[in-house]
Amino acid sequence: MLSDRASHTDGQSTVGMCSTQADVLSPREGEAGILKRLSALGRRDEDPIDRGYRYLSQTFDVDRCYQATLSRAPDFTSRIEMPDEIFTSAIILDLLMNSRLSSRVKRRLTEFLGESHDDGLFSYFVDASLLPRDVDDTGLALSVLIKVGAAPIGVALSAVSKVLQNVDEAGVIHVYMPPRGEREGRCRIDPIPCANALYLAYLLGREDEARPTEEYLIDSLRPEKIARPDAFYYYLTPDVLLYWASRLLDFERFTQKYAHVVEDLLRARIGSSGVPLELALRVIAANRLRVDNAPERDALRRAQKSDGSWPISPIYKLGRSDIYVGSEALVTAFALKALDGD
Fold it and tell me: Which residues form the domain of 327?
């Protein structure tokens, strides 16, 4: 009897123990743990560039695509969402349209931009009532759609005509397009929107109609000009201007005339900061100019985070206010273009 009772008790103990273990470690949780370990093992062997593309795929939102965030602090220690915007997605598609970025992501980015314009003209926000249409977003986003074959030529030519007519008394293209609402009568000139508008003009063979804008842009690339406190209204570093100007090197006619000006600015900027975004912008410009910039390329590679991204920093502010705009996805796309681009 004693033996039977002991056996029965042991059986209860064994059953109880198994039940407790099952509660603590269910088969589903066990599967998750195994998959997590396998995933971590794979990432240890994963190429850093592949990690970057994986990060961009994982953070992609099929409805909103890529969105920047707002912060009162340039280090983004706290941040908030803003209304959905198109500029971040346009930059990323422009950077990575010929890259290893997921084809699914690239298709959706193209659709997103195609859904966001008014006869080829773009505003910064998806809700175009929040800001007037402008030449910065139009110049970039429309040129991207043209390059991927998603913009009807008639729409593109009509839009570039409106951009080229949107000039001040000196013939320089200004930022906002009519109707400008509260901005009426205040022509805002900035070299970076001019660079994007000029790119669109070159792409459609209309660059001769933008000669005053081109001259203004080239003059803005002079070291003494970019050092002025009022050099930029929206953007925060001369390296952003360097990047957008170097994008115009896609065109042989621009390259023949002005590659030396862009290169002079690049050489003046190399070594000026260790901010990952700025490193990436300078490395891209160096790649386009075929200038060796190995130290900054190496520094950029070392700045990658364990999740595959590169650290956030602001690319621009909202006018003269201390409200900064940026995203990890945007910096990561610039870094991938710098390290993996042509």
Answer: 46-340
- Token digits for 101? 């970025």
The rounded distance, in Å, linking the Cα atoms of 178 and 188 is: 12
CATH code for the domain in which residue 283 is found:
1.50.10.20
pLDDT of residue 5: 38
Tell me which residue of 2, 144, 147 sits closest to 87, measured CA to CA: 144
End-to-end Cα separation, the chain, in angstroms:
84
Q: What are phi and psi of 74, to 5 degrees?
A: -65, -15
Give a yes or no: residue 148 inside a domain: yes
Give the rounded distance of the alpha carbon of 320 from its chain centre.
21
Q: Which residues contact 111 (CB under 8 A, 6 or more apart)?
A: none
Distances (CA, A) of 315 to 197, 235, 275, 280: 19, 6, 11, 12
**Cα–Cα distance for residue pair 100/109, rounded to 1 Å:** 15
Q: Give the span between the Cα atoms of 61 and 312, in whole angstroms.
A: 18
Domain count, the chain: 1
Q: Which residues pair with 118 in a beta bridge?
A: 121
Ranges assigned E (strand) in the chain: 69-71, 80-81, 316-317, 324-326
Does pLDDT of 12 surpass 50?
no
Give me the chain's average pLDDT, please: 88
Mean pLDDT of all residues in 45-52 = 89
Report the C-alpha gap between 86 and 123 in whole angstroms: 8
- Report if residue 294 sits inside a domain: yes
Provide the β-strand partners of residue 125: 85
- Please check whether residue 266 lies inside any domain of the structure: yes
Size of the chain in residues: 342
pLDDT band at residue 318 using 50, 70 and 90 as cut-offs: confident
With bands split at pLDDT 50, 70 and 90, how would you rate the model's confidence at 46?
confident
Question: Residues 126-182: pLDDT tens digits?
Answer: 999 999 999 999 999 999 999 999 999 999 999 999 999 999 999 999 999 987 756
Q: Is residue 263 part of a domain?
A: yes
Measured CA to CA, the distance from residue 203 to residue 223 in angstroms comes to: 27
